[in-house]
């Protein structure tokens, strides 16, 4: 049966999940839009609860949709437009159960990690996660009220990296720092300061982490002061800072280069 009413309970749930963090937290679910993201979710064995597809989208994606026949709801083009957060939609959407949040204290924190401290822009967060995936970062830790990991803009910006990365969500930076140090991890604070060490001169050890702060205010003094070392990206001319996503990419590539 083709769904064409905005009053359909599944449609209303999708809209609420997409728009509201409180609803996502209450239901422990989030939304996906687009065939690539949903294919990635399928490949990574995500817990898919509902798939909405127009008849055209179903035909185009039959190769992976058929095994989810019992979870597919066919929708009209009008409903697809209602569900979409983009100007031009692909006619395919999904509701997925959030994966269980991994406890940082139960992990052996080996390798290269990134700690995101109060990152607020969803586009920045998504871009950082995608770059972390590309750079081969061992894990990403979100703390100090970073924006919602399951915000649709974050999910869309990760381009599927959300399903592949080790991501941890913790409340307090001091707790995160203590757990990193307990695992023998050297912690670097990324700051804008002429007194900090220029990143290209740093030889990162096998087990290390870089802390990246808020887009507008950077890291609090009480946070960077306890780190093992402050590092910075030296810039030319009158430029004194970079977009958080770009700065993070430079930091991660320097941290992971051979």
How would you sum up this structure, described in words?
Helix content is 36%, strand content 19%. The chain is α/β, with parallel strands linked by helices. The chain has two domains: 9-97, Ribosomal protein L30/S12 (60s Ribosomal Protein L30, Chain: A), CATH 3.30.1330.30; 104-256, 3-Layer(aba) Sandwich (Alpha/beta knot), CATH 3.40.1280. The strands form two sheets. The chain has a seven-stranded parallel β-sheet, sandwiched between helices. Helix 7 (122-135) links the parallel strand 5 (112-117) and strand 6. Helix 1 crosses helix 2 (21-27) and helix 7 packs parallel to helix 8. The protein is elongated, with a radius of gyration of 20 Å. The N and C termini lie far apart (56 Å).
Walk me through the topology.
Elements: H1 9-19, H2 21-27, E1 29-33, H3 35-43, E2 48-53, H4 55-60, H5 62-65, E3 72-74, H6 77-83, E4 92-97, E5 112-117, H7 122-135, E6 139-143, H8 152-158, E7 167-169, H9 173-182, E8 186-190, E9 197-198, E10 208-212, H10 221-224, E11 229-232, H11 244-256
Parallel strand pairs: 2-3, 5-6, 5-10, 6-7, 8-10, 8-11, 9-11
Antiparallel strand pairs: 1-4, 2-4
